[in-house]
Here is the input.
Amino acid sequence: MAETTDATGYHSLVTLLESIEVGLVVIDLDYRVQMWNGFMENHSGVNASRLLGQSLFEQFPELPRAWLIRKVQSVITLNTRTFTSWEQRPYLFRFRNTRPVTGTEEYMFQNLTISPLTGPDGQVEQVCLMIYDVTDIASGRRALEHANKQLERLSSTDRLTGLLNRGTWENLLDAEFERYRRYGHNTVLVMFDIDHFKPINDTHGHLIGDEVIREVALITREALRQADRPGRYGGEEFAIILPETDIDGALVICERIRETIAETAVETDHGPIHCTVSMGLVKLTDSAENYMQWLQQADEALYRAKKAGRNRSVVSGSD
Here is the structure.
């Protein structure tokens, strides 16, 4: 009677292990497969009868062999389980994602538990790999992180131009000023605005004015280096931080922007519109006690450019 009960219990246990929604893989100390449950069959497409007694790495050469051996050996040596989340390694077995809710994910994200299986003498004889499908959790987390990044980007950029907005750009300007005070590197600030912009708005309307602003921003962004920091300061006024740049190099960049804008026609329903910009440049020196004074110096150079006839670049302190 006891034998019948034991047999029934064993059969029930096997049935349970075959049906649970967790991958179970048992390997011996030579990494030969001793158990491969229904979850693993369904997602790998490989039957247990084909795998039993076979080398796990020969059957699945894409597995991270060195990483998995290191993990398993630690479990054997310490005789204690270990856990790895999808955030550390997205998956162990490269299974296709079959969940309709998270269909945007190409592969199944997995958590992994590696447990020692000991014999009667307490020595580790086998190791069990438990694979958990956490695609729903991972997909939700990744979507949330993406949304947060989008919100962060939207909160720091100007919606019309895609450049940094004034608040974010001024924070960078302050940081650049502090970096200069510490290291004394070359850095140049540029302020510029669109010449005679009000008549464009008054004549053609604000939508056309927005098109002109967008085009000027696009030309500016394409002319700059990755480390440069352009921003929309307000209305038709723009600003650029040029780190690790002397005044001669900054002038070359500004003239390239200014000339390209002057030569570019903004195509609108009312016909092409041409515009020009005036630019003021100032190299950061010890004469500025804070970033606001540095900004004021650039604004004064811009004023001089406009007073001198517009469509030109003027360096602070030059004739």
About this structure: The two ends are 109 Å apart (CA to CA). Confidence is low (pLDDT under 50) at residues 1-5, 7-11. The longest helix spans residues 135-156.
